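Repro:
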Amino acid sequence: MEAPLAERIRPQQLSEYISQLHLVGEQGSLTQQISKGIIPSLILWGPPGTGKTTLAQIMAQESKRPFYQLSAIHSGVKDIREVIDKAKQSGGLFTSKNPILFIDEIHRFSKSQQDSLLAAVEKGWVTLIGATTENPSFEVIPALLSRCQVYILNAFTKEDLEALLKRAISIDAQLKNKTIELKETEALIRLSGGDGRKLLNIFELVVNASETNNIVITNDKVSHLVQKNTVLYDKTGEQHYDIVSAFIKSIRGSDPNGAVYWLARMIEGGEDVKFIARRMLILASEDIGNANPTALIMANNTFQAVTTIGYPESRIILSQCAIYLATSAKSNASYMAINKAQQIVKQTGDLSVPLHLRNAPTKLMKELGYGEEYKYSHDFPNNFANQEFLPQEIIETKFFEPGENSREKELRIFLKNRWKDKYDY
């Protein structure tokens, strides 16, 4: 069977690689390492179709190293051990030519599978390159993560995607036999969602559907063909970022029906239960917060439960949590507060801690006035002493603005009674 366009035009050397200039441009953090062949074990983290596999293959090719590839979906500990045994036989220990072991979707490996990689990475039998669409801080075990550098790949820009299309037209043997005009590319780019592989799949679909060799690509033509052939370009379920966005927005919008529908779409698509639960855990704090603090507890318990149970039973727990969050009072006050505080920190730099708030563990510090005027709140009525807790340069700056839900209205009254002389609550 003929390889798809994305595979046929896969770059074979760094000069052909499109995008990710922060990694492989002239000043890129990986450029010098690749040119010298001195490559550390690393994790490539980025959205689907951004060139993670291609970059790993180029790194192996340009450093002239043996290359072994496994997919976390289809491989187990036995497969890992077989590859490591081959690598030990083909490479010298702790040399610049150690074999590269590339593991696609490493976030899908269990803890025991990831544990089986530790010795090989630590002893230099292989240089590990893992690819993941998920935050490695959550999905890669700490012991393995500490032995790897993490490099972030960005979604392709409009310019990157257009360059990818032009490259395909200019170098692919099949496309070179046709006259192709990219009159409009907006629909192609919108439907790709920044995913280069998806872009090329859709483009090839449109080209192959044309009855002549003189092809003009327009938005209408692309939209019409894609609607008729949705399965052909989305069979791998890579639109899960759009679906989880709809899921989160349904919960944020207090619609349990929308939330459960998009949840069902993710479940039927085989989405990782931890991926779904983690998104709800973030939402419980970002969009509900102190309007209902129990939401965070509920979401955290859901994450722990589905991690233990898995499918199919976890679908019930996910549904319960999604409905609870959707029907909860909403507030983004905590989210907005930390955003504002971080912005102030970036603008003002490292402001000095007021003397009365500083710790005074030594005699010299006490003599310098550290902690001298601090008022211990529990020594005052209602456990409250009116004093300044911010640096002098930003005194009376208010970061937290309570929402209009019933619980945060109570918080507003509490704060107004405490800070009526300082903050406008």
